[in-house]
TrEMBL record:
The organism's place on the tree of life at top rank: Eukaryota
Keyword field contains Transferase: no
Domain Cupin type-2 residue range list: 221-287
Organism: Dioscorea zingiberensis
Keyword Signal in record: yes
InterPro entries: Cupin_2, RmlC-like_jellyroll, RmlC_Cupin_sf, UGHY, UGlyAH_cupin_C, UGlyAH_cupin_N
Protein name, per record: Cupin type-2 domain-containing protein
GO molecular function, one term: ureidoglycine aminohydrolase activity
Pfam families per the UniProt record, alphabetical: Cupin_2
Signal peptide limits: 1-18
Keywords on record: Signal
Length: 297
């Protein structure tokens, strides 16, 4: 028995160092490295894979400036959403940046349930992953799978519930009312929305909300093939919250040019010069908040 244990202890260090090179009692990695690789070998053999660049200590593509922000997934910080059940949220755009709306990701877990937005605040939600059930106060429920969405007018009682994991992107803002105009709840699905005319532009556009006066914002879904770009270098009074759903490209914001990819969030303040080119090998799709139908005064 004892001799067997001794034999095991004797063999163990050899085995682990042969397999992974960093086990208990194994030869320190620095020594093996200098033996097999020349000094400063990383200078002549640099790591060019983008995934390795993003693993650099302290590295992030996120930026936050006066008139725009790019918030990338390695910077997302999730914490429990107030009054929601079993849900973690990451607020990505808030009025603290200068926005008049919030944009956040909600990660709903098993047996989760939403809370209502504050008084007089309207809500738009879009399912990014999984499938949730939207219920109103009469107990009427709708299944919302990926790519479907709902608009809930201010003070409209509802709840979003799920028995499984669901990820939802949510926009909320204080509703700007207009005399004799009352928005209705909207439930829809992206692929059921018609493609709209985009004179002078090549991208494909869908609007998820009615373009009529009761609605003080809209959500656009924009599709680009690789190589397509915005014709107009836009500068306008509207503000934007953008979630890149698919693809990659370059977003110009002010004097800065940002490589962006699916999962990234962008905040655009009024009047920031903005432009996008879809690059890479896959189409780009992004979802875009835009305030509309109200005087800026
Ligand atoms: C719930 O939704 C149904 C169907 O859209 C609607 O007829 C009903 O009025 C809603 N209930 C409330 C309390 O808004």
């Amino acid at each position: 028995m004892h001799s067997l244990l001794a034999l095991l202890l004797l063999l163990l260090p050899w085995r682990s160092s042969a397999v992974e090179g960093d086990g208990f009692c194994s030869i320190p990695q620095s020594i093996t490295e200098t033996r097999s690789r020349p000094l400063y070998w990383k200078v002549t053999n640099p790591t060019l894979s983008p995934s390795h660049l993003q693993d650099l200590p302290g590295f992030t593509r996120s930026v936050y400036k006066r008139d725009h922000a790019v918030i990338t997934p390695e910077s997302y910080v999730f914490s429990p959403l107030p009054d929601w059940v079993n849900t973690l949220g990451a607020y990505l755009i808030t009025p603290a940046m200068g926005a008049h709306f919030v944009m956040y990701l909600a990660k709903m877990q098993v047996k989760s349930k939403s809370a209502l937005p504050p008084q007089d605040v309207e809500r738009f939600l879009f399912v990014v992953q999984g499938s949730a059930v939207l219920k109103n106060d009469s107990g009427i429920s709708h299944e919302l799978p990926v790519d479907s969405y709902a608009y809930l007018p201010a003070n409209y009682k509802h709840s979003l519930e799920s028995d499984d994991t669901v990820t939802v992107v949510i926009f909320e803002r204080r509703y700007v009312s207009l005399e004799n105009h009352y928005p209705e709840p909207v439930i829809g699905s992206t692929e059921k929305q018609p493609l709209l005319e985009t004179p002078g532009e090549v991208f494909e556009l869908r609007k998820l909300l009615p373009a009529s006066a009761p609605y003080d914002f809209n959500i656009h879904i924009m599709d680009f093939q690789p190589g397509e770009f915005l014709n107009v270098k836009e500068v306008h009074y509207n503000q934007h919250g953008l979630l890149l759903l698919e693809g990659q490209g370059i977003y110009r914001l002010g004097d800065s040019w940002y490589p962006v990819q699916a999962g990234d969030t962008i905040w655009m303040a009024p009047f920031v010069p903005q432009w996008y080119a879809a690059l890479g090998k896959t189409p780009t799709r992004y979802l875009l908040y835009k305030d509309v139908n109200r005087s800026p005064l």
